Amino acid sequence: MGEAHGKSVILLSGGMDSVTALHHVLRTGSVAAALSFDYGAKHNRRELEFAALQAQICNVRHIVIPLPFLLDHFQSALLTGGEPIPEGHYEEATMRKTVVPFRNGILLSIAAGVAESLGAKELVIAAHAGDHAIYPDCRPGFLNAMSEAVRLGTYSQIELRRPFVSIDKAAIARRGAELGVDFSKTWSCYVGGPIHCGRCGTCVERREAFLLAGLTDPTDYESLDPLPPKPVNQSHHVDL
Amino acid sequence: MGEAHGKSVILLSGGMDSVTALHHVLRTGSVAAALSFDYGAKHNRRELEFAALQAQICNVRHIVIPLPFLLDHFQSALLTGGEPIPEGHYEEATMRKTVVPFRNGILLSIAAGVAESLGAKELVIAAHAGDHAIYPDCRPGFLNAMSEAVRLGTYSQIELRRPFVSIDKAAIARRGAELGVDFSKTWSCYVGGPIHCGRCGTCVERREAFLLAGLTDPTDYESLDPLPPKPVNQSHHVDL
Q1: Is A33 touching B (CB cutoff 8 A)?
Q2: Is residue B34 part of a domain?
Q3: Does B65 contact A66 at a Cβ distance shorter than 8 Å?
Q4: Global pTM?
Q5: N or C: at which end does chain B have fewer Cβ atoms within 10 angstroms?
Q6: Could you tell me what percent of chain B has a pLDDT over 90?
Q7: Which of A83, A79, A18, A24 is nearest to A52 (CA)?
């Protein structure tokens, strides 16, 4: 992989949180590589296009790690053998399909190995305050333990950095706007069609974020049906 | 992946430690799956043959997870951009090539995801007391933090179990002999030739283990040159 070109490795899904984190980190430091994961899923391919484009815009090296086993060994398993998932509002049915057990552990571990390989000192993840408790690998307790494991398990004691840990998605949208992020070149929708569906869990969350931030949403949605009410237990996966 | 067939998922490299761990765990419990990783490396292919064979002998489901990115993105990186590795005795030059930054974090994370998918409650790794401190992802501190991350990051609070944590490789050999393990059907050699070379770091360690255990070594070695003296800092990676 060659020499280090910066001190951070950042997880970049191509979603609005991680794209904003990339621009945010570049304001104060350098980035050795932006790292994306290719599960082979349809919406993941859409994300990857935007991840690649944003890395190019930022002049940052983009590394895509193929994870063929995730679809082969995990996804169907979750659907047939997983623990019951608490009921939520209807979008969660869509989101559930994309859940991979211990996904954040897997992605952070691989990213830690890449960071160590590149001589980077930090690993950046766009986990934020809106990441809720239903998914165990999104909880702060898990992220703290994983952070410790990454620090202790690497030669250079790599630090896991979570710049957005105390702000929510609307605040991330505002921060992105400040930084001049072109959100029309980010992807959230789990359906993975030609444009955002506007109805799935992540689209609803995206629309809400712009609305709450008081920003114009530049996204082209298939549907602009009224947003559903936010359920008490609404939760989502960390948008990497 | 279907229903759970046992309570443990075990990391099975095909080496003597993990093979003994498989037989050991089966004495007191059931195993949902034995998990191996295919890096595409030559010696890894030899290990995988024996991992598959041992799983078959034990009538345990064997899952091989392909990790093509490890060779693509990690190995050359380590050689050209890694942190300096402390000097040791000459076999370490061979072993160094197989080192993957944060490897145990990556393997344990993927295994945690598989365990959760299969409804298993435990993850078993054959880490032992002879695993020394040069490799950070072999240290007990790392394994404790990782254990916490796995517990907190999974729905079913999967426990990381290390049945051999307080015994060394010679004691593992003795335990294997008690259990009737056919060690001629395990693989250690990093060279990955048709038979064990007898000279590389892992072969030396294997030969020492049988010698110290007072057991006949059933392995066919290319060379039976006298074992080199054990250096003060000798260390090795966890034999998964």
Answers
A1: no
A2: yes
A3: no
A4: 0.86
A5: N
A6: 59
A7: A18
> Which residue's structure tokens are 């990690």?
B74
The total domain count for chain B is 1
Q: In whole numbers, what is the pLDDT of chain B averaged over residues?
A: 83
Residue A176 lies in a domain: yes
pLDDT, tens digit (0-9, with 9 covering 90-100), for A100-137 = 789 899 999 999 999 998 999 999 999 998 876 667 88
- The answer to whether residue A68 is domain-embedded is yes
pLDDT band per the 50, 70, 90 thresholds, residue A99: low
- B114 and A76 in contact (C-beta within 8 Å)? no
Alpha-carbon separation of residue A219 from A20, A185, A223, B76, B212 (angstroms): 15, 9, 11, 41, 68
Identify the three-state secondary structure at position B63.
Answer: strand
Give the model confidence (pLDDT) of A42-58 as tens digits: 678 889 999 999 999 99
Is the predicted pLDDT of residue A239 greater than 90, yes or no?
no
Tell me the CA distances in angstroms from A35 to A31, A107, A123, A220, B92, one per residue in order: 11, 9, 10, 26, 31
Cβ contacts of B136 on chain A, cutoff 8 Å: 152-155
- Structural domain contains residue A151: yes
pLDDT band at A6; cut points 50, 70, 90? low
Please give the backbone phi and psi of residue A148, each rounded to the nearest 5 degrees, phi first. -65, -45
Minimum mean pLDDT range among A25-34, A88-97, B40-49, B121-130: A88-97
Strands A31-38 and A122-124: unpaired
Q: Give phi and psi for B62, each to the nearest 5.
A: -115, 125
A28: Cβ contacts below 8 Å, ≥ 6 apart? none
Do the chains contact at B155 and A82, CB–CB below 8 Å?
Answer: yes
3-state helix, strand, coil in chain B (%, to 5): 45, 10, 45
Query: Which tokens sit at A49?
Result: 């296009």
Using CB atoms within 10 Å of the CB of residue B80, give its burial: 0 to 12 exposed, 13 to 18 middle, 19+ buried: exposed
What are the pLDDT digits (tens) for A184-226?
Answer: 999 998 888 899 999 888 899 999 999 999 999 999 999 988 8
Which residue from A minimizes the CA distance to B86? A155
Question: What number of other Cβ atoms are within 10 A of residue A184's Cβ?
Answer: 10
- Which tokens is A204 given? 């609803």
Domain of A181, in residue numbers: 8-188
Spatial CA neighbour of B69 closest among A213, A192, A87, A64: A64
CATH code, domain with A21: 3.40.50.620
A69: which chain B residues are within 8 Å (Cβ-Cβ)?
65-67, 110
Q: Which carries the bigger pLDDT value, residue A82 or residue B181?
A: B181
Label the pairing between strands B159-161 and A31-38.
unpaired
Token representation of residue A137: 């690998």
